[in-house]
Amino acid sequence: HQFEFEAACKAAQEAAVRNAHERARRFGSASLGLSPAAAKRHMEGRAEDLSQVRPEWGHATNSICIVGRRAKTRGLFLDRRAFLVSYDPMQDDGEKAILTRILGAVVPVCSGINLEYYFSYVDSPGWGSGSKLPHNITGLLGVMDGAMSDLRTGLPWQMVEIHEPVRLLFVIETTPEAMRRILEKNPVIQTMVGNRWVQLAVMHPETGEIRVHHDGEFEPHVCQSGPLPVAASSREWYAGWRDHLEFAEILPPAAGHN
Fold this sequence. Notes:
Elements: H1 2-24, H2 36-48, E1 64-68, E2 76-77, E3 82-86, H3 97-122, E4 135-138, E5 142-145, H4 157-160, E6 169-172, H5 176-185, H6 187-194, E7 199-203, E8 210-214, E9 217-220, E10 230-231, H7 234-238, E11 248-250
Parallel strand pairs: 1-3, 1-6, 6-7, 10-11
Antiparallel strand pairs: 2-11, 4-5, 7-8, 8-9
Helix pairs in contact: 1-2, 5-6
Protein backbone atom coordinates (compact mmCIF):
# COMPACT_ATOMS: atom_id res chain seq x y z
CA HIS A 1 0.00 0.00 0.00
CA GLN A 2 3.02 2.28 -0.38
CA PHE A 3 1.55 4.06 -3.38
CA GLU A 4 -1.74 4.77 -1.61
CA PHE A 5 0.11 6.00 1.48
CA GLU A 6 2.29 8.36 -0.53
CA ALA A 7 -0.76 9.68 -2.38
CA ALA A 8 -2.55 10.30 0.92
CA CYS A 9 0.49 12.15 2.32
CA LYS A 10 0.71 14.31 -0.79
CA ALA A 11 -2.99 15.14 -0.60
CA ALA A 12 -2.71 16.01 3.10
CA GLN A 13 0.25 18.30 2.45
CA GLU A 14 -1.60 20.06 -0.36
CA ALA A 15 -4.68 20.45 1.84
CA ALA A 16 -2.54 21.95 4.61
CA VAL A 17 -1.08 24.53 2.22
CA ARG A 18 -4.48 25.51 0.83
CA ASN A 19 -6.01 25.64 4.29
CA ALA A 20 -3.23 27.90 5.57
CA HIS A 21 -3.57 30.24 2.59
CA GLU A 22 -7.32 30.62 3.07
CA ARG A 23 -7.01 31.04 6.84
CA ALA A 24 -4.07 33.45 6.80
CA ARG A 25 -6.10 36.18 5.08
CA ARG A 26 -7.99 36.78 8.35
CA PHE A 27 -4.80 37.88 10.17
CA GLY A 28 -3.71 41.49 9.78
CA SER A 29 -0.06 40.43 10.05
CA ALA A 30 -0.33 38.34 6.89
CA SER A 31 -0.11 40.13 3.56
CA LEU A 32 -3.06 39.46 1.28
CA GLY A 33 -0.53 38.74 -1.45
CA LEU A 34 1.19 35.84 0.30
CA SER A 35 1.88 32.75 -1.76
CA PRO A 36 0.39 29.47 -0.44
CA ALA A 37 3.81 28.27 0.74
CA ALA A 38 4.51 31.57 2.52
CA ALA A 39 1.06 31.48 4.12
CA LYS A 40 1.78 28.01 5.51
CA ARG A 41 5.06 29.22 7.00
CA HIS A 42 3.28 32.23 8.51
CA MET A 43 0.61 30.07 10.13
CA GLU A 44 3.16 27.60 11.48
CA GLY A 45 5.14 30.49 12.93
CA ARG A 46 2.08 31.81 14.77
CA ALA A 47 1.32 28.38 16.19
CA GLU A 48 4.86 27.98 17.56
CA ASP A 49 5.18 31.51 19.00
CA LEU A 50 4.44 31.34 22.74
CA SER A 51 4.01 35.14 22.85
CA GLN A 52 1.33 35.10 20.14
CA VAL A 53 -2.10 36.02 21.57
CA ARG A 54 -3.84 34.98 18.35
CA PRO A 55 -2.17 31.75 17.24
CA GLU A 56 -5.37 30.63 15.47
CA TRP A 57 -9.02 31.67 15.17
CA GLY A 58 -10.39 28.27 16.19
CA HIS A 59 -14.14 28.07 15.53
CA ALA A 60 -14.60 31.83 15.21
CA THR A 61 -17.20 32.82 12.56
CA ASN A 62 -19.14 29.52 12.90
CA SER A 63 -22.77 30.03 11.87
CA ILE A 64 -24.17 26.88 10.26
CA CYS A 65 -24.12 23.10 10.68
CA ILE A 66 -25.05 20.96 7.69
CA VAL A 67 -25.89 17.31 8.37
CA GLY A 68 -26.21 15.38 5.13
CA ARG A 69 -24.44 13.96 2.13
CA ARG A 70 -21.26 15.79 1.26
CA ALA A 71 -22.43 15.88 -2.36
CA LYS A 72 -24.89 18.56 -1.23
CA THR A 73 -22.11 20.98 -0.30
CA ARG A 74 -19.37 19.91 -2.70
CA GLY A 75 -18.35 22.83 -4.87
CA LEU A 76 -19.51 25.48 -2.40
CA PHE A 77 -17.33 28.12 -0.79
CA LEU A 78 -18.74 28.46 2.74
CA ASP A 79 -16.08 30.85 4.10
CA ARG A 80 -15.05 28.39 6.83
CA ARG A 81 -18.30 29.09 8.66
CA ALA A 82 -19.90 25.65 8.50
CA PHE A 83 -19.68 22.47 10.54
CA LEU A 84 -20.05 19.67 7.96
CA VAL A 85 -21.38 16.38 9.32
CA SER A 86 -21.61 13.44 6.92
CA TYR A 87 -24.91 11.57 6.89
CA ASP A 88 -26.53 9.57 4.10
CA PRO A 89 -30.32 9.39 4.55
CA MET A 90 -30.50 6.64 1.94
CA GLN A 91 -28.53 4.33 4.25
CA ASP A 92 -30.72 4.96 7.30
CA ASP A 93 -33.68 2.87 8.46
CA GLY A 94 -37.31 3.91 8.79
CA GLU A 95 -36.82 5.01 12.38
CA LYS A 96 -33.84 7.20 11.43
CA ALA A 97 -31.69 5.49 14.05
CA ILE A 98 -28.43 6.71 12.52
CA LEU A 99 -29.59 10.33 12.30
CA THR A 100 -30.94 10.18 15.85
CA ARG A 101 -27.53 9.09 17.17
CA ILE A 102 -25.72 11.70 15.10
CA LEU A 103 -27.92 14.57 16.25
CA GLY A 104 -27.73 13.40 19.86
CA ALA A 105 -24.04 14.27 19.75
CA VAL A 106 -23.85 16.98 17.10
CA VAL A 107 -26.55 19.33 18.38
CA PRO A 108 -25.24 19.68 21.97
CA VAL A 109 -21.60 19.91 20.87
CA CYS A 110 -21.96 22.34 17.96
CA SER A 111 -24.56 24.50 19.69
CA GLY A 112 -22.35 24.62 22.77
CA ILE A 113 -19.42 25.85 20.69
CA ASN A 114 -21.61 28.41 18.93
CA LEU A 115 -23.16 29.77 22.12
CA GLU A 116 -19.78 30.00 23.83
CA TYR A 117 -18.53 32.18 21.00
CA TYR A 118 -21.83 34.09 20.92
CA PHE A 119 -21.86 35.10 24.58
CA SER A 120 -18.10 35.63 24.79
CA TYR A 121 -18.50 38.18 21.98
CA VAL A 122 -21.62 40.05 23.09
CA ASP A 123 -20.41 40.36 26.70
CA SER A 124 -16.67 39.77 26.78
CA PRO A 125 -16.05 40.97 30.38
CA GLY A 126 -19.09 39.11 31.76
CA TRP A 127 -19.63 35.89 29.82
CA GLY A 128 -16.23 35.82 28.17
CA SER A 129 -12.91 36.27 29.90
CA GLY A 130 -11.90 39.68 28.55
CA SER A 131 -8.42 40.19 27.18
CA LYS A 132 -6.03 37.30 27.66
CA LEU A 133 -3.07 39.67 28.17
CA PRO A 134 -3.38 39.88 32.00
CA HIS A 135 -4.43 36.23 32.44
CA ASN A 136 -2.57 33.99 34.85
CA ILE A 137 -3.09 30.24 35.07
CA THR A 138 -4.47 29.50 38.52
CA GLY A 139 -4.12 26.09 40.16
CA LEU A 140 -4.54 24.37 36.78
CA LEU A 141 -8.26 25.16 37.21
CA GLY A 142 -8.60 28.20 34.98
CA VAL A 143 -7.31 31.74 34.54
CA MET A 144 -7.70 34.98 36.44
CA ASP A 145 -6.76 38.59 35.78
CA GLY A 146 -3.42 39.17 37.43
CA ALA A 147 -3.62 38.07 41.06
CA MET A 148 -6.89 39.74 42.09
CA SER A 149 -9.94 38.45 40.24
CA ASP A 150 -12.41 35.61 40.16
CA LEU A 151 -11.76 32.73 37.80
CA ARG A 152 -12.56 33.93 34.29
CA THR A 153 -14.97 31.80 32.27
CA GLY A 154 -15.69 31.90 28.58
CA LEU A 155 -13.37 32.76 25.72
CA PRO A 156 -10.85 35.61 25.62
CA TRP A 157 -11.52 38.53 23.31
CA GLN A 158 -8.58 37.61 21.09
CA MET A 159 -10.40 34.40 20.10
CA VAL A 160 -13.72 36.01 19.21
CA GLU A 161 -12.97 39.48 17.83
CA ILE A 162 -13.71 38.46 14.21
CA HIS A 163 -16.76 36.39 15.21
CA GLU A 164 -20.27 37.33 14.10
CA PRO A 165 -22.67 36.50 16.99
CA VAL A 166 -25.51 34.54 15.41
CA ARG A 167 -27.41 31.48 16.57
CA LEU A 168 -26.27 28.32 14.83
CA LEU A 169 -28.46 27.18 11.94
CA PHE A 170 -28.80 23.41 11.59
CA VAL A 171 -29.67 22.24 8.06
CA ILE A 172 -30.47 18.53 8.19
CA GLU A 173 -31.06 16.29 5.19
CA THR A 174 -34.27 14.58 6.25
CA THR A 175 -38.04 15.02 6.12
CA PRO A 176 -40.12 17.18 8.49
CA GLU A 177 -41.92 14.07 9.74
CA ALA A 178 -38.68 12.29 10.63
CA MET A 179 -37.33 15.40 12.34
CA ARG A 180 -40.47 15.75 14.44
CA ARG A 181 -40.06 12.17 15.69
CA ILE A 182 -36.44 12.84 16.61
CA LEU A 183 -37.41 16.00 18.51
CA GLU A 184 -40.05 14.06 20.44
CA LYS A 185 -37.51 11.41 21.45
CA ASN A 186 -34.72 13.77 22.46
CA PRO A 187 -35.63 16.38 25.11
CA VAL A 188 -32.20 18.05 24.85
CA ILE A 189 -32.61 18.76 21.14
CA GLN A 190 -36.26 19.70 21.68
CA THR A 191 -35.25 22.25 24.32
CA MET A 192 -32.48 23.76 22.18
CA VAL A 193 -34.82 24.13 19.20
CA GLY A 194 -38.00 25.01 21.09
CA ASN A 195 -36.32 27.73 23.13
CA ARG A 196 -34.60 29.08 20.00
CA TRP A 197 -31.06 28.62 21.19
CA VAL A 198 -30.46 27.25 17.70
CA GLN A 199 -32.28 27.50 14.37
CA LEU A 200 -33.43 24.43 12.46
CA ALA A 201 -34.22 23.64 8.85
CA VAL A 202 -34.67 20.36 7.00
CA MET A 203 -33.80 19.57 3.39
CA HIS A 204 -35.84 16.82 1.76
CA PRO A 205 -33.50 14.01 0.61
CA GLU A 206 -35.35 13.49 -2.68
CA THR A 207 -36.79 16.87 -3.69
CA GLY A 208 -34.29 19.20 -2.04
CA GLU A 209 -37.13 21.32 -0.64
CA ILE A 210 -36.07 23.27 2.44
CA ARG A 211 -38.45 23.87 5.33
CA VAL A 212 -37.66 26.04 8.35
CA HIS A 213 -38.80 25.18 11.87
CA HIS A 214 -40.89 27.96 13.40
CA ASP A 215 -43.18 27.68 16.43
CA GLY A 216 -43.35 23.91 16.17
CA GLU A 217 -44.07 23.81 12.43
CA PHE A 218 -41.89 23.35 9.38
CA GLU A 219 -42.67 26.17 6.97
CA PRO A 220 -41.46 26.37 3.35
CA HIS A 221 -38.28 28.39 3.02
CA VAL A 222 -38.72 31.52 0.92
CA CYS A 223 -35.49 32.42 -0.85
CA GLN A 224 -34.81 36.15 -0.67
CA SER A 225 -31.65 36.24 -2.75
CA GLY A 226 -30.60 35.34 -6.27
CA PRO A 227 -28.26 32.61 -7.48
CA LEU A 228 -24.88 32.28 -5.81
CA PRO A 229 -21.97 34.06 -7.45
CA VAL A 230 -19.64 31.75 -9.36
CA ALA A 231 -15.85 31.60 -9.18
CA ALA A 232 -13.22 29.46 -10.86
CA SER A 233 -11.63 28.57 -7.52
CA SER A 234 -11.87 29.31 -3.82
CA ARG A 235 -8.57 31.17 -4.02
CA GLU A 236 -9.90 33.41 -6.77
CA TRP A 237 -13.03 34.17 -4.73
CA TYR A 238 -11.31 35.21 -1.49
CA ALA A 239 -8.29 36.89 -3.11
CA GLY A 240 -7.66 40.36 -1.67
CA TRP A 241 -10.45 40.05 0.89
CA ARG A 242 -9.88 39.93 4.65
CA ASP A 243 -13.41 40.08 6.11
CA HIS A 244 -16.48 37.83 5.85
CA LEU A 245 -17.42 36.71 2.35
CA GLU A 246 -20.75 35.58 0.96
CA PHE A 247 -21.05 31.96 -0.11
CA ALA A 248 -20.18 31.09 -3.69
CA GLU A 249 -20.32 28.26 -6.18
CA ILE A 250 -16.89 26.98 -7.20
CA LEU A 251 -16.57 25.55 -10.68
CA PRO A 252 -15.52 21.89 -10.93
CA PRO A 253 -11.83 21.15 -11.67
CA ALA A 254 -12.59 20.64 -15.36
CA ALA A 255 -13.60 24.30 -15.63
CA GLY A 256 -11.42 25.85 -12.91
CA HIS A 257 -9.03 25.02 -10.12
CA ASN A 258 -9.92 24.47 -6.44
